[in-house]
Design goal:
Beta Polymerase, domain 2, 7-stranded mixed sheet
Length: about 300
């Protein structure tokens, strides 16, 4: 366990993250794709002109239509090595309902994701901004379906990685073995599950509903559901470290909805939880060298931990 890298030089990590954001911005700028920084990244830009000191990630929100355009462009190779645009359509072992841009020459393994077999370079989250129904019953029905798809995607990820039902609860193990034949026969695949997830999460995209949210990642968390009009305001570019990032002009209302008195610093746990890092070692080499230690950590400490959201 001592060989695993739990600490990281924040300046070096921030450098890699900003580089990923610069590459992401390059592709979006060249292809006229609108996006915003969101969550702690937006908060950091406004309050610190950069990262929140205890933060270690970058979050991007992108309207659904722009997101679909970006996914198609990614298939055509607009992101150059070592950058990798990841979602379940491009990486079969990745079980989340949104995308990440990763640097394949590095390593970042959140504890909750140790069992996955996918690209595990340092990443930024790229989350679609989807239309959310105002009807509570419709919203709850949609979120319930999304959560069910996510649980099956997690099970497929366990199947794909070979870890199976090891280290999980008895209830989850039973569910895993019940669905396992469908994985083996390819009746259920990660790509197919992701397509169903995407169809569900974007089902209101042509409607006149007044709310949008990051529900592909945060599900029913009301802090990340807003009035649609807030994101349709003018885009302003704000200082963030040594670059500028896009935020909506009505950021105050967005941040107040998410964090309350957001100018008052309150240290909260990072969304990804604790992570294992290497700035200099590619993830595939790191995993190969530390496979036994990673599996031990997963089985002893992580497998049964509850997850509030997926970001």
């Amino acid at each position: 366990m001592a060989d695993l890298s739990f600490d990281v030089n924040k300046e070096e990590l921030f450098r890699v993250l900003v580089d990923l954001l610069v590459e992401f911005n390059r592709v979006c700028s060249e292809n006229d794709i609108k996006y915003f920084v969101v969550g702690g990244t937006m908060l950091g830009a406004i309050r610190h002109n950069g990262f929140i000191p205890w933060d270690d990630d970058i979050d991007i929100a992108i309207p659904r239509k722009e997101y679909e355009k970006l996914k198609e462009l990614a298939k055509k190779g607009v992101f150059r090595q070592p950058y990798f645009f990841q979602n379940p359509s491009t990486d079969e072992g990745y079980p989340k309902g949104f995308s990440r841009l990763r640097n394949s020459n590095t390593t970042q393994i959140p504890f909750r994701d140790i069992s996955t077999n996918c690209n595990r370079g340092i990443f930024i989250d790229i989350i679609p901004l989807d239309v959310v129904p105002e009807s509570i019953s419709k919203r709850e029905k949609m979120i319930s379906r999304l959560f069910n798809y996510k649980m099956i995607m997690n099970s497929y990820s366990r199947y794909y990685s070979g870890i199976g039902a090891e280290g999980t609860t008895k209830k989850r193990a039973i569910a895993y073995y019940l669905i396992l034949p469908l994985f083996k026969c390819r009746i259920l695949t990660m790509k197919g599950l992701f397509n169903r997830f995407e169809k569900t999460v974007s089902q209101y995209k042509e409607s006149n509903e007044e709310c949008v949210g990051l529900i592909a990642c945060t599900y029913g968390d009301k802090r990340f559901i807003w009035k649609r009009e807030l994101w349709e305001s003018k885009v302003v570019w704000h200082n963030f470290e040594n670059i500028k990032v896009p935020i909506p002009e009505r950021y105050d209302e967005i941040l107040t909805n998410s964090y309350g008195d957001y100018m008052k610093p309150v240290k909260e746990p990072n969304n990804h939880g604790d992570s294992i890092y290497s700035i200099d070692v590619p993830y595939n080499k790191y995993v190969q060298e530390h496979f036994s230690e990673l599996k031990e950590l997963w089985l002893k400490e992580i497998a049964s931990l509850p997850t509030k959201n997926d970001c």
